[in-house]
Amino acid sequence: MTFVHQSVLLDRVLELFAPVPAGTIVDATLGGAGHAAALLETRADLRVLGLDQDPHALLAAQARLAEFGDRATAVHARFDQLATVVAAAGAANQPIVGVLFDLGVSSPQFDRPERGFSYRNNAPLDMRMDTTTGRTAADLVNDTNERDLAAILRRYSDERFASRIAKAIVYARPVLTTGELSELVVNAIPAPARRKGGHPAKRTFQAIRIAVNEELDVIPPALDAAIDAVVAGGRVAVISFHSGEDRLVKARFRLAEDGGCSCPPGLPCVCGAVAEARLLKRGGWVPTAAEIEANPRAASARLRAVEKLPTTPGEDLQ
Ligand SMILES: C[S@@+](CC[C@H](N)C(=O)[O-])C[C@H]1O[C@@H](n2cnc3c(N)ncnc32)[C@H](O)[C@@H]1O
Known about the structure:
Strand content: 5-15%
Bound molecules: S-adenosylmethionine
CATH topology of the largest domain: Rossmann fold
Distance between the termini: 41 Å
Low-confidence stretches: 314-318
Number of strands: 7
Helix content: 40-55%
Radius of gyration: 21 Å
CATH architecture of the largest domain: 3-Layer(aba) Sandwich
CATH superfamily of the largest domain: Vaccinia Virus protein VP39
CATH class of the largest domain: Alpha Beta
């Protein structure tokens, strides 16, 4: 089966990694390997160590990257395992000069009905990116109490009607398919609100997907590991699609930039904080109108990036 996914902010990603020294880029969210293949094509002195927790994506990526031989390695792993994967791949022999995260879901995950991510198709309620393990969306909606379900809907998608939807889910249980869930969400939302802001079940599906895949929980440890792994002059870049993700990235990059400095703003730092990295652009980058027109799924994307600073006076760019 073909794997069709348009890489977001591709030219910007290539530009960001153009100045890094020779070595290995970790693509923490390999997907269809669009970014990875473009990096390998444009820089003959780079290797890619790719991770994806979705075994279907991994197969597609391996096929896409076969032409690069041993310059590309693809590993089935969740990206909070980054440090272990890097160590096991022996990538420590090659400097890690970049880490790329292109967060969220690939187009095939949404578009293939059997993955159970979409309110547009009727299929078993699954939503796991890693189909080999963990709780499905059906497990989550059928086993979580009403108060916790409402909290998930509020926390991960700011759903205004979280309580009504949670009550409707609990009343209708067991809820086993995307079609059942979508229909009961539509019916739980007051009629005037159903007509605004896209499909009425969109936010519920997003929140449940984020909870099933623990999408926000894995970001902070993975960013720590990424910043730790790269050599001086190496770069860490993150494309996020959701304000909850972007907040975590922004906060971690700010900490990398100011080293946790507690001195009053505007005054010289006397608290001994040491910066780990420099921010490459305040506010980051968003896609152009032309990119969004060509690929509407890019609309909510924001890319932020940092460059690692030398940690000791002697440590130079490799
Ligand atoms: C937006 S797609 C990446 C597309 C890719 N950059 C490209 O150009 O083809 C995101 C991919 O990251 C994977 N993914 C999301 N969260 C992950 C995590 N915590 N660990 C590993 N893979 C993850 C998904 O399974 C999906 O295949």
